[in-house]
Model the fold of this input.
Amino acid sequence: MALIAFDKFDKYASGATGWTDLASDNGYTTSASGPNIDAGIGRFGDAALNIDSTAYYAIPWSAKTGSTTVIVGMSFIHSSPTVSTAKTLLSASATATGSGLHFEIAWIGGQLFVYNATGGIVGSAMCPINVWHTLEVKCTMANSGSITVRLDGIDVCTAVSGDFLHTTTALGFIQILRGALSPTYVDWVYLCDSTGSTLNDFLGDFRVESVIPDADGGTAAWTPLSGANYTNIDDALQSYDDDTSYISSSTVDQDNLASHAAVTLSGLNSVKFVDLAALTRDDGTNDVALLMVNGANTLVSGTFTTGTAYNWRIFASTTAPDTTAWSVSNINASEFGVRCK
Done:
């Protein structure tokens, strides 16, 4: 399983509509009235969440994995003045509404505080305002569990034999920014478990570049609503159109590939992973798998069970289809797509 969820918010619509998309197209639980997803406020001038003081969203953990170890990270900045009451940045809980806390990372007066399931403080660290931070947590959910919290790549809290299981209630949800400081901006969020051989530990800090299809690939066998296949799946960032344009298939093992706009990375040491995201639904018969293809080499995701409502499916890989490390050149030489199952 490893990488369970990953979101870079530049694919959603702008404003409050984007917040609605975030919830409905991921199966997340959110506050009833959400904040905005805004262009130009992200860490590198792209889109990011603009959180208000009542907003939160909860990623369903128990529906995705049975692992008792959670690894979660986020890039955020807050610019509120010093406050004397706790404002939650990140927490794990039994319910979507936050009851049955297993751990909580809160911000109070320029400091992070780490709480266990009984509300005891097990660590703290300075966390200045008006600076982008990378916050990461790895926690084993048990009555005698453990937690490690990293801030900007440095371990600021390590607690062992602590209580990180609320009574005997299993972890149900990871909550992002429940009652956080306003404004707080979030650039990306990831969620992993400890299974598998890759993407199953701290991912560290990184920059995300997003590109969209720009031409049909070597195989474009699905049926477009109209025109060329790729023009039905090339929605511009921050304006995807759900059901207005699409490609479809009911033929098992039929593929559809597309090339993409060029990735032009500079000043980076390496590519951590490539993440393919596809918004999919089904009328009740078929499922879908995601594809990464480079020449004669193909990587295929597991099969995603689809339903009648649209949901984002993600497939991440730390290596290219030929098992070499990703680079700008082999990213740009690769095609990405879907397979009907």
